[in-house]
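Minutes, project huddle
Topic: does the predicted pose make sense with S-adenosylmethionine bound?
PN asked that the exact inputs be recorded in the minutes so nobody has to dig through chat later. Recorded below.
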Amino acid sequence: MRITVVTLFPEAFESALAASLLGKARAAGIVAVDFVNPRDFTSDKHRSVDDAPYGGGPGMVMKPQPLVDAIESAGGGHRVLLTPVGAPLDQAAVRALAARPHIVLVCGRYEGVDERVSRLAIDQEISLGDFVLSGGEFAALAVIDAVSRLIPGVLGEMASTVEESFSDGASLEYPQYTRPTEFRGLAVPDVLVGGHHEKVRAWRRRESLRRTAARRPDLLARRRLSPADRALVDGDPVVLPASRAHVVLAHHPVLDRTGAVVTSSITNLDVHDIARSCATYGLAGYEIVTPVGAQREKIEHMARVWLDELAQEGVQAGHGHRGHALAPIRVHESIEAALAAIGPQPLVVATSARESPRPIGYRELLRLLGRMPDRPLALLFGTGHGLADAVIASVDHVLEPIEGQSDWNHLSVRSAAAVILDRLFGTGA
Ligand SMILES: C[S@@+](CC[C@H](N)C(=O)[O-])C[C@H]1O[C@@H](n2cnc3c(N)ncnc32)[C@H](O)[C@@H]1O
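Predicted holo structure (tokens), as shared on screen:
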């Protein structure tokens, strides 16, 4: 593979490219790296490559002509500009670059490059992440390193690139251990020293999914688990936090539109629709709270009608019969009773349309759940105009309000529940 680097500072690459695997790959002719300096394409006596930005502002901008000429002198290849406004680099993009015979990596400096360079001479813009480097050289080095280790012959064992983090696009690598079996009181997990290959494989895959769920829930949220993975982590409280989550729908104490604390009436739609959302996202339970005995009986009756029908028809789980969704409904006379029924020490998270002083974000909540796999989650929803202040003050966390870009902010509780369950437990993020 050939890599051309367009840079004002080729010397920044010397030691990094000479060392370790990259040095060997270059010596063996597997990867060839050459440099083009835009300064060699200037015509003024100061050999200037930058100029002040039109419209004013701090710093200087790289001029289009020396840079475009430098890029074109590379004679083809896939042209990549390293820039913080590019698409964040991931392993899939690294793999695509590694499949090309020639890539040209263009490094910016100063406040960046004239926009026309991108329009005229760049095929792809890549960012290393949401931070600002002082030059594209370090980003280019990272790309060179990540790309070249995928080229056959560079790493000793290609398998090591198959099982590592992100190789399947969506999970982090499992924990690794080497000798000794015990270090400062910490032992290597038994399964790894047992010599049973299939058990090791299953353990690694499960740990990889658990780590990803706890540390990078955003990665797992991008897709549904494969049937094999689902079988492996069935009911796992870290990978499938929904399996220990309960929706608690409170009709008391809630606010009315004047801000008074009241008891609201149950509505059929909330009972049914939230039950269906809970079933879709795989929640453990749906707890409905009302202090009014007659209303509790009404809900129980409603659920029973559907469950009887389900029993008569014998519809299997997963076939969308409403009875399956209504089965996990329980009624309680108070929020405290609902929390006690959920299990020991539930993490209690209230939802609110109003601002609260220190709300918890969705990913933060998922990460927190990953760190406390033994605690069930109670997601509190208020009917009417939301949960009373005393409830909000008593919970462990208040979830960020759902907000769009408009000033209107009054979702129905069943819509809010659907949005929040999807943000926490849905796929396709
Ligand atoms: C100081 S930065 C320019 C930042 C630019 N003014 C902005 O705010 O987006 C100079 C050069 O460093 C490189 N660079 C900085 N941050 C980067 C990142 N996160 N990923 C890739 N390249 C980066 C780019 O080549 C950029 O042109």
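Observations noted during the meeting:
- Residues 2-158 form a domain with the Alpha/beta knot fold (CATH 3.40.1280.10).
- The chain is about 40% helix and 15% strand.
No decisions taken; revisit at the next huddle.
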